[in-house]
């Protein structure tokens, strides 16, 4: 696939939202195992190798959509998403999978998936119908698991991978348990439609009015193998922190901090280039920050304070190295700033 085609794909999928780097990395590993070149996969998507190092890092959903298109082309596999969902364990993607498997039952795991699912993929939900992405409803005397995300046909590959994961993981971990009885999807039948029924082993209706799986009610009460209240507590605390960071990233301050972090060490972090990186004018960014009750200078200062404490408490870098990392050319100036922030010299924290 040429770079021009890949850029065209990215432009045609200007979708809002983000995905975790772990989710994107899983797609890359899956495509590479099927013959795709890893560098060719990233070319033109806007995703860099360093973006994938932390599984909790956020990547634009539009970039993930482009990555999926590139992967399908390079692998010569139109049904790539369908098989990706079936082959990969949710626990390998994110803390969300670990939380779900630490729950007591499938019903409990579904509730946690609704609570923390945005950490895996942040998508819009049709709130006029339901407040949560996945809902259990009754229709025609049958129980249905429904995906309420909006505009599902803009990216039907997500429907493919989502329902494949639900069906395949249940079959993999609970081979004797009843789950899916039929599946409805809103998108038209693709050329690889036969692979749906072959993989899911149930009747599939294309072009329906919802994305839903008819399920056996007993699925909700299946007891998971290794529920752990301790692990559940540890994992949910971590996930709650990530949710707070995700919410913060939607503020002007959060967006500024995300741009500042990789370049904080440069020292010269004027407002003008930061505003340009965010695609707004300096005056516009000034107004946005003012509405949040903060100035640009205060954001930079607070970020330097937070990162300095983080580096020093980690005890992996010296005071002088920390001064450089947060943008001070002179250790003495850093020491004065640190005392203003905390009331103590940086060496006190380093040695504590």
Q: Overview of this structure, please?
A:
It is a single chain. The protein is an alpha+beta fold and about 350 residues long. The protein has 3 domains: about 80 residues, no CATH class; about 150 residues, no CATH class; about 100 residues, Homeodomain-like (Arc Repressor Mutant, subunit A, Orthogonal Bundle). The chain is built from 17 helices and 7 strands. It is elongated. It starts with a helix and ends with a helix.
What keyword list fits this structure?
five-stranded mixed sheet, 3 domains, two-stranded antiparallel sheet, 52% helix, disordered N terminus, 352 residues, alpha+beta, Arc Repressor Mutant, subunit A
| The number of domains | 3
Low-confidence stretches: 1-14
Q: How much helix is in the residues?
A: 40-55%
| Mean of pLDDT | 86
Estimated share of beta-strand residues: 5-15%
Topology:
Layout: H1 3-12, E1 18-20, H2 21-33, H3 38-42, E2 58-60, H4 61-75, H5 80-87, H6 95-101, H7 106-116, E3 134-139, E4 142-147, H8 156-173, E5 180-184, H9 194-200, E6 204-205, E7 211-215, H10 229-248, H11 252-260, H12 271-277, H13 282-291, H14 296-314, H15 319-325, H16 331-342, H17 346-351
Parallel strand pairs: 5-6
Antiparallel strand pairs: 1-2, 3-4, 4-7, 5-7
Helix pairs in contact: 1-4, 2-4, 5-8, 6-7, 6-10, 11-14
How would you summarize this macromolecular structure in one to three sentences?
The protein is of the alpha+beta class and 352 residues long. 52% of the residues lie in helices and 9% in strands. The chain has helices spanning 3-12, 21-33, 38-42, 61-75, 80-87, 95-101, 106-116, 156-173, 194-200, 229-248, 252-260, 271-277, 282-291, 296-314, 319-325, 331-342, 346-351, and strands at residues 18-20, 58-60, 134-139, 142-147, 180-184, 204-205, 211-215.
